[in-house]
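Reading a protein record of the kind used here takes only a little practice. Think of the row as the fold of the chain written in a discrete alphabet. A record is reproduced here so that you can trace the correspondence yourselves:
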Amino acid sequence: MSTASDIEKYLSTAQIQNWRNSDLQRYKDFCLAEFLRDQSSQVSSTSDPQLYKRQEAIWELFTSECVYFLDQLMVLKEVFSATLTNLQTANCLIDVDSWRLFANLNELCLVSFGFLTNLLRVIGDTLEITEGGGPTLPELLSKAFQESICHCLQKYCLNYTTALLYLDSLKAREDFGSYVKWCERNEQCRRLQLRDLLVAPLQRLTRYPLLLRNIAKRCQTEDESGGLQAVAEQVDTSICDLEGKVKWLDNYQKVKQLRDALVWQPVWERDKRAFVPESLKHLLKAVTLENLISHRSLLHEGKLVLTENTKLVDVYLFLFDEFLLITKIKRNKKRSMGPDQNPLRVPQNLELDQLLKEGCTFTVLDQPVSLDRLQLRNIDQLNASTSGLPHSFIIMHQNRYQQCIGAFILQAASESAKRVWISKIEGAVTALLKLDSEQPRVKSSSLWLESSQI
């Protein structure tokens, strides 16, 4: 395995390939007037003001794409990705997964360069600098965003969370730290850090609709304006689709992580009155957490305090779209989950992340509380003060005969935290009952949860 000194020794003679000797680099800092003078064009702001404003909006799209391509994508590719590849060729950092850091960066570079080349040609045709005969601006933009730009940016963005968490896990290593510091000190980075550059494609994707609508507002014909508005809406749709995929992916990873941390005790451990001879225990079907939570959406989670007999017990609640789990936290310091075990988890709940990192498990109390069997009771401040249970509420679990088979008095850290929990539970119950009224749940091996309609 390579050491920091090995990395430094190799990088002391390493050189970065120059990619800036091109027309794109020259035009990047031009305003439209400077470009027109450079091309000896007769178009000016006085000859046709409306056309000139349209060309300024197109030029903004072009120059901002130049900045994105030259100062961000190519810096990532040549300074960071290519250097890592060269180090691995020299048997350094060979265990670092380049894809998890940079994903389809090479594809992004090719797509952006092709888009810039074609856009520059269309600008030349429009200004009668070149011979013409190529696609019109709406044709180029529609084809580029539909066939390549949105698709490859979505692919990159879906890997973005993985990249950040993987980067955080690697930074603790001295050898990897030496590589990153050397790259970030390079003058091409212009004081930007690796994290700043990794987020650039996400920021670029969200800026495209603004740039496209800015051009559409300055078009001279309704057909051209409508075509560009359609392209902008297409990018908006792609962004919304990406947000949905990211939410699904995050939920999938959270549920996958919880599946390994949840513990469901067998009935003879959960209920002391249940006696099952050792020789017969194999006849009782074990609970499969895979079937229990794999297809569920986790809506809310957090730590509360449960009043149990005469003592207060820390519990952790998981609110899914069909049921509520009340669990006891069991700490196990010998077992620790490293950062690699959860590559896509967005660290929204730092408390849960820390508990999982420490190797804690969550033992399910009693059984899942189906939301169509759940009754929620708020404890007002007067009764809460009288009973010595501030910020409390009650969850009652009913069976199909409307009998209460479980009651849990739960205490939040504050009144606002209690209101959030009550709101989340009430919202989940309402959504489930509405869904059941429209499309009753059907029994299956993996999605079955008994309904109160039985």
About this structure: Confidence is low (pLDDT under 50) at residues 335-348, 443-454.
